[in-house]
Amino acid sequence: MNPWPPRWFAHRGGGTLAPENTLAGIRLAARLGYRAVEFDVMLSGDGTPVLIHDETLERTTNGTGRVCDTADEQLFALDAGQGEAVPRFGEAAALCRQLGLLANVEIKPAAGYERQTAETVARLTSQLWAGAAVQPLISSFSPEALEIARDLAPEIRRGLLYERVPADWRQAMQRLQGASLHCSALGLDDAVLAEARGPGIPVLCYTVNRPDQATALFARGVSAIFTDRLDLFSPETSAYNGLHLPG
Ligand code: G3P
Ligand code: MG
């Protein structure tokens, strides 16, 4: 029986070895031995959920303008890097299921689209993974999105996502019936780790790209990390796989 959550998550699909938030990235993560991938989901101008991080197209595609203003016809014709298209959420879900990967679906609403994005993504997550052996994990920086996910897809685990964990995180965890706590590795206090340990709430940290930082976080009690450096942390290509921690 594999532990939950897995120790390593490929951040934004394939990290830095493949264009971020693409199907190629997800395939690469699986090929390198990852059991889990995190990706960001936002709505297109036509309301279609797609994998993309920024609210605007410039950084990760050859397009311009806002994702929420771009029709599907234009969006899916864009190059998201190395000839990869911006994936539909449904395509990413099917691929994760096929590869047996745990998907951390980060609901990433454009400003003003919190409710619409969360409703669409939560409902679809429930449908797309119905009956799947490996169930996904929904997370979001938006408490409103998690509240909607709790109501519309109660069976899907939820992770509360923060840059820096606020003092009242336990109340939020209870209200949102969360399963895990996700936060930036830079803003993680030992007090939070101690509070999470008692009730057995796993703490997952982003974005960890250095082995010494990963080692220190695991030693402090962190359960999992999100990494862009699939080359460094892959069980297939590196001795550093979490089973043989240096030091
Ligand atoms: O979900 C963890 C991490 O992905 C949050 O930060 O900006 O990379 O989506 P970001
Ligand atoms: Mg993310």
Walk me through the structure:
The protein is of the alpha/beta class and 247 residues long. Helices cover 32% and strands 17% of the residues. The chain contains nine helices and nine strands. The protein has helices at 23-31, 72-75, 89-99, 114-128, 143-152, 169-176, 190-197, 211-220, 230-233, and strands spanning 8-10, 36-43, 49-51, 102-107, 137-140, 157-162, 180-184, 203-206, 224-227. Strands 1-9-8-7-6-5-4-2-3 form a nine-stranded mixed β-sheet. Helix 6 (169-176) links the parallel strand 6 and strand 7. Helix 1 (23-31) runs parallel beside helix 3 and helix 3 (89-99) runs parallel beside helix 4 (114-128). The longest helix is centred in the middle third of the chain and has 15 residues, at 114-128. Mean pLDDT is 93; it is low at 242-247. The chain binds SN-glycerol-3-phosphate (G3P) and magnesium ion (MG). The site of magnesium ion (MG) has 3 residues, from strand 2.
